[in-house]
Automatic annotation (TrEMBL):
Protein name: glutathione-specific gamma-glutamylcyclotransferase
GO molecular function list: glutathione specific gamma-glutamylcyclotransferase activity; transferase activity
EC nos: 4.3.2.7
Gene3D superfamilies, per database record: Gamma-glutamyl cyclotransferase-like (3.10.490.10)
UniProt record, GO biological process: glutathione catabolic process
Keyword annotations from UniProtKB, A to Z: Lyase, Transferase
Domain of life: Bacteria
Cellular compartments per GO CC: cytoplasm
Lyase listed as a keyword: yes
Methyltransferase in keyword set: no
Length: 217
């Protein structure tokens, strides 16, 4: 007796989502900064688009390794790189393994100015969990703000077969542009920073080889 074919993410209904209210984002920000002392510099960990578009001034930038989580296309995007009808995928830090990325040091005086904008960008749907985690750099360990994937969020999606992942990325586009552009640009930024991510490089090469978006069906 043949086992039933598992449902495809291409045809399965995408769970509903909603944008967080300004009050929810502010409450999350207040919680993350409850132990921050005014004027104290902070580190922010970047693993995806924050590497090539941080959108804040920083005092220092270092390569860093985060242990316990890995970079993955595990988050449905229905605004920036997709739509509710045709969602794309964006990166999250999923459980397990390790991740090579970048840490930025922000001057303490800049925190009140830049952190609300950072929360608007990263916490628009509450899909991430802001955590302060030790990251390893060549100059020593730093405690950085890390946005890890909230697996309880409806927008979380577990590892997909690569053909499905590629098809989803190729067909999706949102307010910030095509999903393919986002994935390829992230892969390029990692290479320029001296970060090797073999799986992402392989995905980016396949996306560049076939740039035409696929039909919805």
């Amino acid at each position: 007796m043949n086992s039933p074919t598992p449902p495809s993410a291409l045809t399965a209904p995408v769970p509903p989502f909603r944008l967080w209210t300004p009050e929810e984002r502010q409450a999350s920000l207040d919680e993350a900064l409850k132990h921050w002392r005014e004027g104290e510099d902070v580190w922010v960990y970047a693993y995806g688009s924050l590497i090539w578009r941080p959108d804040f001034d920083f005092q220092e930038r270092r390569l860093a390794t985060l242990r316990g989580h890995h970079r993955a296309l595990c988050l449905w995007s229905r605004v920036n790189r997709g739509t509710p009808e045709c969602p794309g995928l964006v990166f999250g830090l999923d459980r397990g393994g390790s991740c090579r990325g970048v840490v930025y040091r922000l001057a303490g005086k800049s925190v009140p100015e830049f952190f609300p904008a950072l929360w608007n960008r990263e916490m628009s749907t509450g899909a991430y969990l802001p955590r302060w985690i030790n990251c390893t750099t060549d100059q020593g360990s730093v405690r950085a703000l890390v946005f890890i994937m909230n697996r309880d969020n409806p927008a979380y999606i577990r590892t997909l077969p690569e053909p499905e992942l590629l098809a989803i990325v190729r067909r999706a586009s949102g307010s910030c542009g095509p999903c393919t552009e986002y994935v390829v640009q992230t892969a390029s930024a990692l290479r320029e920073a001296g970060i090797h991510d073999a799986r992402l490089d392989r995905i980016a090469r396949q996306l560049e080889e076939q740039t035409d978006p696929l039909p919805d069906n």
